[in-house]
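Moderator note: this is an archived Q&A kept for reference. The question asked for a predicted structure of one protein chain; the sequence and the answer are reproduced below.
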Amino acid sequence: MTSILIVDDDIHIGNMLQEALSDEGYSVSRAYSGSEAALAVHAARPDLILLDLMLPGLSGEELLPQIKDIPVIVMSAKADPADKVGLLRSGAADYVTKPFDLGELLARIEVQLRTRRQVGSPKLAFGGISLDTDSHTVTADGQEVKLTRTEFAILKLLMQRAGQVVAKLTILDLISEDTPDCTEDSLKIHIHNLRRKLRTVTGRDCISAVWGIGFMLTEKD
Protein backbone atom coordinates (compact mmCIF):
# COMPACT_ATOMS: atom_id res chain seq x y z
CA MET A 1 0.00 0.00 0.00
CA THR A 2 1.29 3.46 -0.86
CA SER A 3 2.38 5.30 2.29
CA ILE A 4 2.20 9.05 2.91
CA LEU A 5 3.72 10.91 5.85
CA ILE A 6 1.92 14.07 7.01
CA VAL A 7 4.26 16.50 8.79
CA ASP A 8 2.12 19.22 10.37
CA ASP A 9 1.62 20.33 13.97
CA ASP A 10 -1.89 21.61 13.19
CA ILE A 11 -4.12 18.82 14.52
CA HIS A 12 -7.18 19.94 12.54
CA ILE A 13 -5.38 20.02 9.19
CA GLY A 14 -3.61 16.76 9.94
CA ASN A 15 -6.86 14.99 10.83
CA MET A 16 -8.57 16.31 7.71
CA LEU A 17 -5.70 15.15 5.49
CA GLN A 18 -5.46 11.75 7.17
CA GLU A 19 -9.17 11.09 6.69
CA ALA A 20 -9.11 12.16 3.03
CA LEU A 21 -5.96 10.16 2.22
CA SER A 22 -7.22 7.07 4.04
CA ASP A 23 -10.46 7.28 2.03
CA GLU A 24 -8.30 7.27 -1.13
CA GLY A 25 -6.65 4.03 -0.01
CA TYR A 26 -3.31 5.41 1.21
CA SER A 27 -1.50 4.28 4.32
CA VAL A 28 -1.03 7.42 6.44
CA SER A 29 1.42 8.24 9.22
CA ARG A 30 1.84 11.49 11.16
CA ALA A 31 4.67 13.61 12.54
CA TYR A 32 4.15 16.81 14.51
CA SER A 33 7.66 18.27 14.46
CA GLY A 34 10.63 18.35 12.12
CA SER A 35 12.71 16.18 14.44
CA GLU A 36 9.95 13.58 14.71
CA ALA A 37 9.60 13.60 10.92
CA ALA A 38 13.33 13.02 10.43
CA LEU A 39 13.13 9.94 12.65
CA ALA A 40 10.00 8.71 10.86
CA VAL A 41 11.63 9.03 7.43
CA HIS A 42 14.69 7.11 8.63
CA ALA A 43 12.65 4.36 10.34
CA ALA A 44 10.14 3.69 7.55
CA ARG A 45 10.63 5.54 4.28
CA PRO A 46 7.23 6.75 3.01
CA ASP A 47 6.38 7.02 -0.67
CA LEU A 48 5.52 10.73 -0.34
CA ILE A 49 5.70 13.46 2.29
CA LEU A 50 3.32 16.38 2.90
CA LEU A 51 5.43 18.96 4.70
CA ASP A 52 4.39 22.07 6.60
CA LEU A 53 7.11 24.68 7.14
CA MET A 54 6.19 26.19 10.50
CA LEU A 55 7.12 23.30 12.76
CA PRO A 56 8.37 23.19 16.36
CA GLY A 57 12.06 22.43 16.67
CA LEU A 58 13.48 21.58 13.25
CA SER A 59 11.64 23.69 10.67
CA GLY A 60 10.37 22.46 7.33
CA GLU A 61 13.03 24.49 5.52
CA GLU A 62 15.74 22.81 7.61
CA LEU A 63 14.24 19.34 7.18
CA LEU A 64 13.70 19.50 3.41
CA PRO A 65 17.38 19.21 2.31
CA GLN A 66 17.75 16.12 4.52
CA ILE A 67 15.09 14.20 2.59
CA LYS A 68 16.50 12.28 -0.35
CA ASP A 69 14.69 10.37 -3.12
CA ILE A 70 11.21 10.92 -1.66
CA PRO A 71 8.82 13.43 -3.28
CA VAL A 72 7.92 16.23 -0.89
CA ILE A 73 4.90 18.48 -1.37
CA VAL A 74 5.27 21.59 0.76
CA MET A 75 2.12 23.01 2.36
CA SER A 76 2.55 26.57 3.58
CA ALA A 77 0.79 29.88 4.01
CA LYS A 78 3.83 31.57 2.45
CA ALA A 79 2.69 32.82 -0.96
CA ASP A 80 5.71 34.88 -2.03
CA PRO A 81 7.12 33.54 -5.34
CA ALA A 82 10.65 33.89 -3.93
CA ASP A 83 9.76 31.47 -1.13
CA LYS A 84 8.39 28.96 -3.63
CA VAL A 85 11.47 29.25 -5.84
CA GLY A 86 13.77 28.67 -2.88
CA LEU A 87 11.86 25.60 -1.73
CA LEU A 88 11.75 24.07 -5.19
CA ARG A 89 15.49 24.60 -5.51
CA SER A 90 15.97 23.00 -2.09
CA GLY A 91 14.34 19.80 -3.28
CA ALA A 92 10.57 20.20 -2.96
CA ALA A 93 8.67 18.34 -5.68
CA ASP A 94 5.67 20.66 -5.45
CA TYR A 95 4.18 23.48 -3.40
CA VAL A 96 0.61 24.28 -2.34
CA THR A 97 -0.41 27.45 -0.55
CA LYS A 98 -2.63 27.23 2.53
CA PRO A 99 -5.58 27.27 2.51
CA PHE A 100 -5.56 24.75 -0.34
CA ASP A 101 -8.24 22.91 -2.27
CA LEU A 102 -8.26 19.28 -1.14
CA GLY A 103 -9.13 17.97 -4.61
CA GLU A 104 -6.19 19.83 -6.12
CA LEU A 105 -3.83 18.48 -3.46
CA LEU A 106 -5.00 14.90 -4.08
CA ALA A 107 -4.40 15.40 -7.81
CA ARG A 108 -0.89 16.72 -7.16
CA ILE A 109 -0.20 13.70 -4.95
CA GLU A 110 -1.31 11.36 -7.74
CA VAL A 111 1.00 13.11 -10.21
CA GLN A 112 4.02 12.78 -7.92
CA LEU A 113 3.35 9.11 -7.15
CA ARG A 114 2.78 8.30 -10.82
CA THR A 115 6.02 10.04 -11.72
CA ARG A 116 7.90 8.12 -9.04
CA ARG A 117 6.61 4.79 -10.36
CA GLN A 118 7.79 5.71 -13.85
CA VAL A 119 11.35 6.49 -12.81
CA GLY A 120 12.41 2.83 -12.65
CA SER A 121 10.65 1.83 -15.85
CA PRO A 122 12.59 1.52 -19.14
CA LYS A 123 9.64 3.05 -21.00
CA LEU A 124 8.27 6.49 -20.22
CA ALA A 125 5.22 8.17 -21.73
CA PHE A 126 3.67 11.61 -21.35
CA GLY A 127 1.51 13.82 -23.54
CA GLY A 128 2.01 11.85 -26.74
CA ILE A 129 5.77 11.47 -26.19
CA SER A 130 7.27 8.02 -25.62
CA LEU A 131 10.85 7.32 -24.54
CA ASP A 132 12.53 3.92 -24.34
CA THR A 133 15.72 3.88 -22.28
CA ASP A 134 16.68 0.41 -23.51
CA SER A 135 16.55 1.16 -27.24
CA HIS A 136 17.41 4.85 -26.70
CA THR A 137 14.51 5.93 -28.94
CA VAL A 138 11.94 8.71 -28.70
CA THR A 139 8.64 9.07 -30.53
CA ALA A 140 6.22 12.00 -30.48
CA ASP A 141 2.69 11.54 -31.80
CA GLY A 142 3.88 8.29 -33.35
CA GLN A 143 6.85 9.78 -35.21
CA GLU A 144 10.47 9.06 -34.26
CA VAL A 145 12.46 12.05 -33.03
CA LYS A 146 16.23 11.97 -33.43
CA LEU A 147 17.96 13.36 -30.34
CA THR A 148 21.54 13.84 -29.27
CA ARG A 149 22.83 12.07 -26.17
CA THR A 150 22.40 15.20 -24.05
CA GLU A 151 18.93 15.98 -25.41
CA PHE A 152 17.86 12.40 -24.66
CA ALA A 153 19.16 12.65 -21.07
CA ILE A 154 17.34 15.95 -20.51
CA LEU A 155 14.07 14.64 -21.93
CA LYS A 156 14.32 11.44 -19.88
CA LEU A 157 14.72 13.46 -16.68
CA LEU A 158 11.83 15.79 -17.53
CA MET A 159 9.62 12.80 -18.35
CA GLN A 160 10.53 11.14 -15.07
CA ARG A 161 9.31 14.33 -13.40
CA ALA A 162 6.54 15.23 -15.83
CA GLY A 163 4.40 18.14 -14.69
CA GLN A 164 7.04 19.15 -12.15
CA VAL A 165 9.40 22.11 -12.45
CA VAL A 166 13.01 20.90 -12.48
CA ALA A 167 15.64 23.48 -11.53
CA LYS A 168 18.50 24.10 -13.96
CA LEU A 169 21.15 23.04 -11.46
CA THR A 170 19.15 19.91 -10.65
CA ILE A 171 19.07 19.00 -14.34
CA LEU A 172 22.84 19.48 -14.62
CA ASP A 173 23.44 17.41 -11.51
CA LEU A 174 21.16 14.50 -12.44
CA ILE A 175 22.27 14.18 -16.09
CA SER A 176 25.97 14.54 -15.28
CA GLU A 177 26.51 10.77 -15.31
CA ASP A 178 25.12 10.48 -18.86
CA THR A 179 26.45 13.80 -20.18
CA PRO A 180 29.36 15.06 -18.06
CA ASP A 181 30.24 17.80 -20.57
CA CYS A 182 26.94 19.69 -20.27
CA THR A 183 27.33 23.11 -18.61
CA GLU A 184 24.87 25.73 -17.41
CA ASP A 185 25.50 27.79 -20.55
CA SER A 186 25.20 24.87 -22.98
CA LEU A 187 22.08 23.57 -21.19
CA LYS A 188 20.06 26.46 -22.64
CA ILE A 189 21.16 25.51 -26.15
CA HIS A 190 20.38 21.82 -25.66
CA ILE A 191 16.90 22.57 -24.32
CA HIS A 192 16.27 25.07 -27.13
CA ASN A 193 17.14 22.39 -29.70
CA LEU A 194 15.09 19.75 -27.88
CA ARG A 195 12.02 22.02 -27.77
CA ARG A 196 12.43 22.79 -31.48
CA LYS A 197 12.64 19.13 -32.47
CA LEU A 198 9.56 18.20 -30.46
CA ARG A 199 7.62 21.20 -31.74
CA THR A 200 8.49 20.32 -35.36
CA VAL A 201 6.82 16.92 -34.94
CA THR A 202 3.94 17.77 -32.58
CA GLY A 203 3.20 21.36 -33.54
CA ARG A 204 3.16 22.41 -29.87
CA ASP A 205 5.57 23.44 -27.13
CA CYS A 206 6.10 20.40 -24.92
CA ILE A 207 8.65 22.02 -22.61
CA SER A 208 7.89 25.18 -20.66
CA ALA A 209 10.46 27.48 -19.11
CA VAL A 210 9.56 28.62 -15.60
CA TRP A 211 11.34 31.91 -15.05
CA GLY A 212 13.87 31.87 -12.25
CA ILE A 213 13.54 28.14 -11.60
CA GLY A 214 13.97 25.80 -14.56
CA PHE A 215 11.93 23.74 -16.99
CA MET A 216 8.99 21.36 -17.01
CA LEU A 217 7.29 18.99 -19.44
CA THR A 218 3.72 20.06 -20.18
CA GLU A 219 0.72 18.95 -22.22
CA LYS A 220 -0.15 22.38 -23.61
CA ASP A 221 -1.78 22.55 -27.04
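Archived answer notes: The chain has two domains: 3-118, 121-217.
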